[in-house]
Design a protein that fits this description.
mainly alpha
Length: 159
C-alpha cells in the first residue's frame, strides 16, 4: 500500500471529527453564544438572529468543503484523481469557500456598521484575509489539477 493511500484513513478520521464538531457548533454552541451576546450587550441584541444565521450557513459551507474533500480522498485512494470528475469536487470547494467568504464579508459589514472596527469585527477582518488567501489558493490548485489531468490524458494516449 502506498504512503498516500495510508494517509487517507487518518485524514478521513479527521474529516469525520471536523464534521461532527461543526454540527455540534451549529446546533448547540452558536445559539448559546449569540444568546449570551444579546444578554450581555443589549445594543447588539438585534444582531443576534442575523449573525446566527450567517454563522450557521457559513459553517454549512465548511461542511461542504469537508464532503468534497472526502470525495477527493476517495479518488486519490482509487488512483482516479487526475480526471475531469475530480474538478467537479474541487469546483465545489471553490464555490463553498467563496460562499463562506461572502457570508463573513456580510457579517463584517454588519458589525462595522453597528459598532465600528472593534472586537469581533477585527477578528472577522482577519478571517476575511485568510479566506481570500484560501480561495485564491484553491483556484491555483484547480488550475494545476486541470494541467495534470490534461498531461495524464496525453500520456495515456501515447501509451
Amino acid at each position: 500500500m502506498s504512503r498516500t493511500r495510508r494517509l487517507v484513513v487518518p485524514l478521513r478520521a479527521l474529516l469525520v471529527a471536523t464534521f461532527a464538531a461543526l454540527v455540534v457548533t451549529q446546533v448547540a454552541v452558536l445559539p448559546a453564544a449569540f444568546a449570551r451576546m444579546a444578554g450581555e450587550s443589549p445594543d447588539l441584541a438585534p444582531l443576534r438572529w442575523p449573525l446566527l444565521a450567517l454563522a450557521v450557513v457559513g459553517l454549512a459551507c465548511v461542511e461542504a468543503v469537508v464532503v468534497c474533500t472526502w470525495r477527493l480522498l476517495t479518488m486519490v485512494r482509487d488512483d482516479r484523481i487526475f480526471s475531469d470528475h475530480a474538478l467537479v469536487w474541487v469546483n465545489g470547494i471553490v464555490a463553498a469557500v467563496a460562499g463562506a467568504w461572502l457570508l463573513v464579508l456580510g457579517a463584517f459589514v454588519l458589525l462595522v456598521a453597528t459598532e465600528g472596527l472593534a472586537g469581533l469585527a477585527a477578528l472577522l477582518l482577519g478571517v476575511l484575509l485568510v479566506g481570500a488567501a484560501v480561495g485564491l489558493l484553491m483556484v491555483v490548485l484547480r488550475a494545476l489539477l486541470r494541467q495534470a489531468t490534461d498531461l495524464r490524458t496525453d500520456l495515456d494516449g501515447v501509451i
